C-alpha cells in the first residue's frame, strides 16, 4: 500500500509535483543515482531533455524489479544550476503530476558526469 498524506506542496500559489509525506507497506526498491548519459555523452543539451531522459532511465531500472513510476515514493535530485529548476520542475510535473507525486528533495550541486541532473529513487513495489 502507498498512501499519499497531504499535498500537493504549494509554492507561490502553484501546486508542485511533490507530496510532503508518503506511507508505504510494500517491499522497497532503491535505484542508485542515474545521470542522462547515452553512449558516453549527455543525452540532451538542455535540462528538459535531460530530465525526461533520466526519468526514462529510472523507469527502465524499475521495470527490472517489477515496478513502475507510480511506485516511486521518494526522489532525490541534484541539479548543477539553480536556473534549471523551472525547466526541470516542468518536465518532472509532466510525468508525475501534482496530485500523487513522490516525496522529493532537490539540491544544487556539482556532479562528476558532464550533465545537468542526477536522480535517485526509492520505490515501494506492489507486485
Model description:
With 127 residues, this protein is an alpha+beta fold. The chain has helices spanning 47-64, 85-96; strands at 2-5, 10-11, 14-15, 21-24, 28-34, 37-38, 41-42, 72-79, 103-108, 117-124. The strands form four sheets. The protein has a four-stranded mixed beta sheet with strand order 5-10-8-9, covered by helices on one side. Strands 1-4 form a two-stranded antiparallel sheet. Strands 2-3 form a two-stranded antiparallel ribbon. The mean pLDDT is 92.
* Mean pLDDT across every amino acid position: 92
Q: Indicate the percent of residues in helices.
A: 10-25%
Main β-sheet, in a few words?
4 strands, mixed
Quickly give the structural class.
alpha+beta
Order of helices and strands: EEEEEEEHEHEE
Poorly predicted regions are none
Helical segment count: 2
Which keywords apply here?
127 residues; alpha+beta; four-stranded mixed β-sheet; two-stranded antiparallel ribbon; 10 strands
